[in-house]
Design brief:
The chain is of the alpha/beta class. The protein has 14 helices and 25 strands. The strands form seven sheets. Strands 1-8-7-6-3-2-9-21 form an eight-stranded mixed beta sheet. Helix 1 runs parallel beside helix 11. 45% of the residues are buried. It comes from Streptomyces xantholiticus. Keywords: FAD, Flavoprotein, NAD, Oxidoreductase.
């Protein structure tokens, strides 16, 4: 293990530098670092403070736009925000925090160069810690899930799923085997939260439109199935709007199975708890999230669900100089009448918590009083495909086009940076004027496959774009389900 150089007071005669380490580059990590670099601008310019952001990717993904990216309404590049551009006054380290020893004020980090160097992980010291690694998919021990499940948490998975769906339509159009055709045109989504419902609705819209360009496929040939273990979908928008969403989906010939579980998906056959069996080449897992594994490798207090115990000031309970928010933090909900209630781990709270979190860190450094986080849940909006949606905001219930318009307006206002707002708005405008894109770029997942075939004279070791007709791919769309933004995305 290599210990990174500590810049705090390394030069004789210079004042000690306060290093703020931000673990995570998602909602909480990026927004907190962004506010800190603004609030601490004088200290950063004088060299009295330093902000280090450790993130596994060089960008923040705006996850509410993943369904539209999968449907082709938004370019993948505009769903993400580059950290180095937004956080110009911060030091960005692309890597993963594997452990945190807060007693010693150190974090063990593996970077992209760790394996190349062969010197082991890097140990980064800090004075203040903001731990916001987000969440990962909450999977269950379902036979076959790790082999055939598809996640829907990253932009890579969203685009991979789009390519996969169109590729299955290509397979169904060209095969002479009815069994292969039926399996290729059967799409199973597990999880009735925002991720599952919005992804299914957007992709069904896209596939139904795309089918008009196939000479031997009709929209009714495609079979879409939504599996939800509870008795309703989209609980955040309320029971009435949830029932409307079910009716809307079923009116589009989508098979919604409530109070049903996935028992197995071995051999590409989805077996449900009601006894149904569906041969399928597409199984998307969006059934919940759990805290990132790094939380279990810290010496910070966790609750029974594995989240960090925090107070209303967003400081980790029982320790000093440690802060958290978002999915990783169990923050008391001061607006709730229920004793012991906690803020839901969703984007609505996460973005608002970052403002209080950054202000309190600055206040603690400057010896000023800190404030408590309190936000009453305002409601939620959800898209059910193009021009369709549901909303329950400030007690008002909307459905259809008005709800869809509210969904777009809200998330356009929330996506970070003016650059991304303008690009997304331009793409929405152009998509309203021109036809949908129906191109599948699945070969992007193996960009060297064609050259390997030409250079080696045989089938590339990592597969090629025609491999899907014979078996499961090794690309992103066929790997283990590893994430789902199943938390509510409200206003």
């Amino acid at each position: 293990m290599v210990k990174a150089a500590n810049t705090r007071g390394t030069t004789p005669g210079t004042p000690p530098r306060t290093r703020i380490l931000v673990v995570g580059g998602g909602y909480v990590g990026m927004y907190t670092a962004l506010r800190l670099q603004r609030k601490l601008k004088p200290e950063l310019e004088r060299g009295e403070a330093e902000i280090v952001v450790v993130a596994p990717d060089p960008y923040m993904t705006y996850q509410p736009f993943l369904p539209e990216a999968a449907a082709g309404s938004i370019s993948p590049r505009h769903v993400v925000v580059p950290l180095r551009r937004v956080l110009g006054r911060c030091t960005i380290v692309i890597g993963e925090a594997k452990a945190v020893d807060h007693a010693k004020r150190t974090a063990t980090v593996t970077t992209l160069a760790t394996e190349e160097e062969g010197a082991g992980a890097v140990e980064i010291t800090y004075d203040e810690l903001v731990i916001a690694p987000g969440s990962i998919s909450r999977t269950l021990p379902v036979p076959g899930l790790a082999d055939f499940g598809i996640g829907f948490k990253t932009v890579e998975e969203a685009i991979g799923l789009r390519n996969h769906v169109i590729e299955q339509m290509d397979i169904a159009s060209s095969t002479r085997d009815p069994a292969i055709r039926d399996a290729a045109l059967t799409f199973v989504f597990v999880g009735g939260g925002y991720a599952g419902v919005e992804a299914l609705a957007e992709l069904e819209d896209m596939a139904r439109y795309t089918s008009r360009y196939y000479h031997n496929l009709k929209p009714e040939d495609l079979k879409w199935i939504l599996v939800e273990a509870q008795g309703r979908i989209l609980p955040e928008v309320g029971e009435q709007m949830g029932r409307y969403a079910v009716r809307e989906l079923r009116a589009r010939n989508i098979d919604v199975r409530l109070e049903t579980r996935l028992d197995s998906c071995e051999d590409r056959v989805a077996v449900l708890s009601d006894g149904s069996r569906f041969p399928t080449r597409t199984l998307v897992w969006t059934a919940g999230v759990k805290p990132a594994p790094v939380l279990a490798t810290t010496d910070l207090p966790l609750n029974e669900r594995g989240r960090l115990k925090c107070n209303a000031r967003l400081a980790v309970e029982g320790v000093e100089h440690a802060w958290a928010a978002g999915d990783a933090a169990a923050v008391p909900d001061l607006t709730s009448d229920e004793p012991g209630a906690e803020c839901a781990p969703n984007a609505q709270h996460a973005v608002r918590q970052t403002k209080v979190l950054a202000e309190n860190i600055v206040a603690s450094l400057r010896g000023a009083p800190m404030q408590e986080y309190a936000h009453k849940y305002a409601g939620s909006v959800a898209s059910l495909g193009l021009h369709k949606g549901v909303a329950h905001v400030y007690g008002r219930k909307l459905k259809g086009y008005p709800a869809w318009l509210m969904h777009r307006a809200y998330h356009l206002s929330r996506v970070p940076t003016l650059n991304r707002k303008a690009r997304v708005l331009a793409e929405w405008t152009l998509s309203g004027l021109f036809k949908r894109e129906i191109v599948s770029l699945g070969s992007l997942e193996h960009p060297r496959a064609e050259f390997e075939l030409a250079a080696g004279g045989g089938r590339p070791a990592n597969g090629s774009k025609d491999q899907s007709a014979a078996g499961p791919k090794e690309g992103p769309e066929e790997q283990s389900a590893d994430g789902s933004p199943d938390g509510p995305k409200g206003t």
